Amino acid sequence: MFGFSKREMAGKLDDLTQEAIILVHKFISNKKFKVNGKVLEDAENRVFAAAITNYLFARIHSQQHLDKFSSKQIESSGLQLIKSDDKLREMIVQSQKAVFIVQYGFEPSSYPDLTEILTMYGEEFPKVPNPASYEFLIKFDSGLY
Fold this sequence. Notes:
This protein is an all-alpha fold and 145 residues long. It has 7 helices and 2 strands. The chain has a two-stranded antiparallel ribbon with strand order 1-2. It is globular, with a radius of gyration of 15 Å.
């Protein structure tokens, strides 16, 4: 596999996932969100964008985020974003696959239940990311810049 051991490959995917998180968070932070009928102010908008980013990267909701927003609000906004943006959807699906590889290894049968996003959109992007393809997606093909 490109001269990488599985451990090196997982490490590279983990590093790239961190880059993707930053890229997606910056992209989402530039959007204005409406929650409970009102447009969020800058500070609240950044917190909401962070909550959505965590959700999109298959992380559990933090209590700090849940103190301000419901999990339904966070998840609904995240799903709405990826439903309407093909490039973001590809980035998130491949990132979640990379997260699963890093956390659980290369054998899909060892994965826990798939996330809602992978269940809905995983087949849309059937290839499993490797460091080269994932890096290309993040740095050159994401369209999130």
